[in-house]
Design brief:
The protein is α/β, with parallel strands linked by helices. It has helices spanning 18-27, 39-58, 64-73, 80-84, 98-111, 127-130; strands at 8-12, 31-35, 74-77, 89-92, 117-120, 140-142.
């Protein structure tokens, strides 16, 4: 069975989930690009991710050095195909629309390296249906991240048990 050495990741989507997934990947040591349809959206996603890293550090869940290193591994792009061209791992958090995800994964299948792992954060769509238009559907996986509930102050993920 082949093994993977993940170095570069892409997190697609800048809504509720994408920036947080990017944070997890960057804190895990991967160079991570946050991708949105527009440059402005990608920059907003990057700002959100950096704010989440600051919150994680402020609450003692990583060191200041780890936070700085993770921030240095984050970037933003509106060019999906260029971003995934060198990716080892791709996480998608687009809206729960099957036709949209099928089109997106067909693009990812063509643009990402053949050995790249492509994941969807879908909470209810069939992975077989999502990967239906892919030439290599065996590399498409569901990797559903959970969104932590806010605490009484409205902040998310501020206690160890929230992570």
């Amino acid at each position: 069975m082949p093994t993977h050495d993940f170095r570069r990741a892409v997190s697609i989507g800048t809504g509720m989930m994408g920036p947080g997934i990017a944070v997890s990947l960057a804190l895990g040591g991967l160079e991570t690009t946050i991708v949105s349809r527009t440059a402005e959206g990608a920059e907003r996603g990057l700002e959100t991710a950096r704010g989440q890293i600051a919150t994680i550090a402020e609450n003692g869940l990583c060191t200041a050095d780890e936070a700085e290193a993770a921030n240095g591994r984050l970037s933003a792009s509106a060019d999906l195909e260029a971003a995934v061209a060198t990716a080892d791992f791709v996480s998608e958090s687009a809206p729960e629309n099957l036709a949209l995800k099928q089109e997106l994964f067909a693009t990812l299948d063509r643009a990402a390296p053949p050995e790249a792992i492509l994941t969807t954060n879908t909470s209810g769509l069939s992975i077989n249906a999502v990967s239906e238009r892919c030439e290599r559907p065996e590399r498409v996986l569901t990797a559903h991240f959970e969104s932590a509930a806010p605490d009484a102050s409205g902040r998310v993920g501020t206690r160890r048990q929230d992570l």
